[in-house]
Amino acid sequence: ENSQCMWLVARRLGVLISAGLCLLSLRIWINQGTNPIFKPEELRAAFHPDRVVRILSFSNIYALNAWLLLAPSALCCDWSLGSVPLVTSLMDVRNIWSLLLYTGLLFFIIHVLRSKRDRLAVGMSLTLLLLPFLPASGII
Questions:
Q1: Which span out of 43-52, 62-71, 114-123 was modeled with the highest average pLDDT?
Q2: Which residues neighbour 63 within 8 Å (Cβ) at sequence distance 6 or greater?
Q3: Cα(136)–Cα(140) distance, integer angstroms
Q4: Sign of CA dihedral 10, 11, 13, 17
């Protein structure tokens, strides 16, 4: 029974890894092996000279995207060209949402590591949540 369950998990992981590699290969093929080229008008946060402003602004964008994933009430086809203002200060109220996002993810990861009963299901859901985020965010 246990070996059959492990075989099923291994097969699922194999399918997920294969699908991810296929999608990553498709992205590389579409981009012709190069990174996307953005202009300062399209992605203002990436071109700001102050590193703190870049970090705070991207954290705000991640929090906004997480919120839109949970409550898609204000969808937009293009969030570029200044539609999301830069976070230029640590005292900006929007930093609370970034802090809540990272705190929630930290507690979720701690729950996965401590859980005995739901470790596989919660770990798989965390993987499915974070894996597509990594290439989309430009981290990898």
A1: 43-52
A2: 94, 97, 98, 100, 101
A3: 8
A4: positive
Phi/psi of residue 56, nearest 5 degrees = -65, -40
CA 107 to each of CA 69, 88, 95, 116: distance values in angstroms, whole numbers, following the listed order: 19, 27, 18, 16
Cα(139)–Cα(137) distance, integer angstroms: 5
Q: Which amino acid is at 123?
A: G
CA distance 36 to 82: 19
DSSP state of 26: H
pLDDT digits (tens, 9 = 90+) for 72-113: 887 776 666 778 889 999 999 999 999 999 999 888 888 777
